[in-house]
Fold this protein.
Amino acid sequence: MLDGRAALKRRLPPRLLLSSIWLGLLVIMAVFAPYLAPKDPLAQDLMLGRLPPFWVKGAEPGFFLGTDSLGRDVLSRILYGSRLALMVALIAGTLTCLIGATLGLMAGYLRGWVDLLISRGIDIWMAFPPVLFSILLIAVLGPGISSIIIAIVVIDWTRFARVIRAEAMAQGAMDYVASAQVSGRGRLSTMVAEILPNVLPTIVVLLTLEMGIAVIVEAILSFVNLSISTDDPTWGGMISEGRTSIHQAWWVLVFPLITLFLTVLSFSQLGEGLKDRYDPVLR
Amino acid sequence: MSYLSIKGLSARLKGTPHRILRDVSLEVSAGEVRGLVGESGAGKSMIGKAILGTLPESVEISGSSILLDGTDLMGLSAKERRRRIGASCALIPQDPLTALNPSRRIGGQITDRLVDILGWTRADAEARARELLAEVQIPDPERVMRSYPHELSGGMRQRILIASAFAAEPKLIVADEPTTALDVTVQKQILKLIAAMQARHGTALLFVTHDLGVVSKVCQSLSVLYGGLVVEDTTVRDFFRAPAHPYSRALLAATPKYSDPDGSLTPVPEEVIRNVQAQVSAADRGVAHG
């Protein structure tokens, strides 16, 4: 039995491997975009508009994935777009996680009036339609990366709080919590030292899911032209532009869409993979 | 003088008139083993929880004193109370599968109390933990200390919990149905182990159980509970020779016999239940009027 486990541990599960590879690539793309991008992502050339990707007849060398209707290089725009997407994923995901998980943990473990306050807050919060709420928020805050991040955090903390609250409640009912209290641990110290490590696997899964969601939300906001200045390349913006010329130049829509899809999928698979591998109970 | 002395302990579900404990009084002398028996829901575990301060949020206790070595726990601040209990009491929980934190190694879980409350150095505490694990007959204590709970069997975990309970040489241990979740074969070993440890360390033990056979083996005195009311408080010898309360008698008669495994089971007669319920209601009226 031990041997079986050891073998399982040595081999990296494919979902973890593949998702890490894609996300790793994405990070490299984002960080080194200025060096990797073959063209200026903003440079327009109407003479070179709607060039197809390299394997289709009529492609120009140098424009690997073709150009959009204004003659901008699709590959370079995807590369630059990954900067905003990743930044939003990391910052918004982490902030949402910190706020949501902390409130959820407090509500689930401390119970009483703390729980009452937080839970009612979640109920009220969740009654707002999220997309409208975020559009409204951006309209008030004005476009820009910090507005996107704030909008995501403000809307999505409830997702964490709900799940972590339930998890913390389940853990709080276990005998080991009572044992810890009998051996003199205070409430706060029990929460941090005993409960938190046991909800951490769930937090990690939620965090990676949230990063994927943040990428989608950013794309949605870009799609409706509410994220950052319209010139800057964003995946959502590209999808929105590509939509108008789908019959003449499908590649303008399809490539950013594939990138977006792979990224969101990778985030969720990364979380599940990490949980499978590092949860001491499953391990 | 008794080490633990509970006087008039009552508990109710918050916001309801439903009482879980009704004016419970009981004493445990230093080094004594007292059994606490009753049906499911009689409130026997609640008493243990009330002493140790681990009652659920939804239960409130009222109008009572819990004297531990002469100090009333009810009069202390939460922090002081926790420190006092941590230094002098311990718990052997019911379910060894959930009583160890799954994401922490065994070693730390045994030494926590020694380091946090008694101020030992980590090295001393670890040496003590190894010693205790050997005392509860765990092979290779060194390896077990580094293990996670899920790597060990239920019986092993219960041994660890017993070792952990005795770690700080407490004066009182509450054992909350410590054998209920175990296999029958393991139960006997664990029971023997608890009895042996108790005798060696001279710890007072409050043994919560529904198994009168267990009581006859390990306890010196016992309290019989029904509906949160102590209906009989006696020594084990007197109880098995001549139980005073009709409910106790019925309970004893209802115990399945090893000598007659095919014999039909004797339920507690309805009349006895009616009478004891009447007694419970009378206790409630007593509170209402007086």
Remarks:
- Residues 12-38+46-278 of chain A form a domain with the MetI-like fold fold (CATH 1.10.3720.10).
- The CA atoms of residues 48 and 71 of chain A lie 5 Å apart.
- Chain A has one domain: 12-38+46-278.
